[in-house]
Amino acid sequence: MPALDPFPALVRTITAQQISTKAAATIYGRLVALTPHGVTPNALLKLTDAQFRQAGLSRQKIGYLRDLASKVTSGELPIGSLHELDDEAVIEAIVKVKGLGRWSAEMFLMFRLRRPDVLPLGDLGIMTAIQRLYRLRKRPKPARIMKIGDAWRPYRTVACWYLWRSLENTTED
Questions:
Q1: What is the pLDDT of residues 5-40, one digit of tens each?
Q2: What is the C-alpha to C-alpha distance for residues 11 and 166, in angstroms, rounded to an integer?
Q3: Exactly one of 5, 49, 123, 150 is catalytic; which is it?
Q4: CB half-sphere exposure, 169, CA atoms < 13 A
């Protein structure tokens, strides 16, 4: 059983891209207000561009949300059974949606499906934390991160939480 409803989680992911946490929360709140029976694929497909814009969404994000809703409605993105798929299959399904890439899919695996062994190789925070922890001169490339991360199997997600937290307690020299 999934930890949290996956569709609103993916909607939140799209609405939050490239904006502050506060702005994202405001926009998502407006979207929720426009869909009083829940943030569902059908509810989003019924909204007009003007309603989306009124909520604060860009034309590009409106397109992403419509693509997400359409793919869920058509069954191309099996939202209700993502929790039954292995990690790579979840990633493959999510990245078919415009605006959702591998990083978004990995965050979904970690924080929504609560998968224990995810290592987001392209995450800047993870790269920076590994660089500091291992005292590397340069940010590590994905192959190096994979090699380092092998020691953390089968709990690489937990290792990532600690790596991100380590960045909160450091200051730049």
A1: 899 999 999 999 989 999 999 999 999 999 999 999
A2: 29
A3: 123
A4: 6
Please give the model's pTM, rounded to 2 decimal places: 0.87
Is 123 a residue of the active site? yes
Q: Where are the domains of the chain?
A: 6-111, 124-168
pLDDT at 3 over 90: no
**Does the pLDDT of residue 4 top 90, yes or no?**
no
- Angle, CA 83 vertex, CA 5 and CA 61 arms, to 5°: 50
Residue recorded with tokens 């799209």 = 14
Q: Taking the domain 6-111, which CATH number applies?
A: 1.10.340.30
